[in-house]
Structure formats: C-alpha cells, structure tokens
Specification:
2 helices, 78 residues, 0% strand, mainly alpha, rod-shaped
Amino acid sequence: MAELMSSGIELMFAGMGIVFLFLTMLVFAINMMSALVQRFFPEAPPTSVIAPTASSNAPDKATVAAIAAAVHQYRKQK
C-alpha cells in the first residue's frame, strides 16, 4: 500500500512539474512574440481629434452658393 501511495505522489509531482514547465515556456513564448510585434509593428501615434477652426477650413463663396442652390432646388421639387 505504501509503495502504491509513493508511486502516486511521484506521478503527481511529475505531472505538476510538466504543467509548470509548459506554462513557463508558454509565458516566455508570449513575451517573445509581444516583443517582436512591438518591434516590427509599432503602434501608430495617436491622432488628436480637434474641431477644425472656422477660418482654416471655411468653404469658399462659390461652394456655399452651389450648396444653397442645390438645397433650394431639392426643396422646390419635394
């Protein structure tokens, strides 16, 4: 009976050791892949979303007139 118990404990430690070794290798592999991805595919710098100023992106008068004419014609048809 004692021999069976010691054999079971040996098997338990062997299994736990194999699982621990596998998980350690898995963590190492994931860290290596993360380092490679960050090295070869760096994140793009974040672009700030700022509302455009009225003076720099203001449409010219001809564009405003064309839009107004198109809206007027659309409303006239409907």
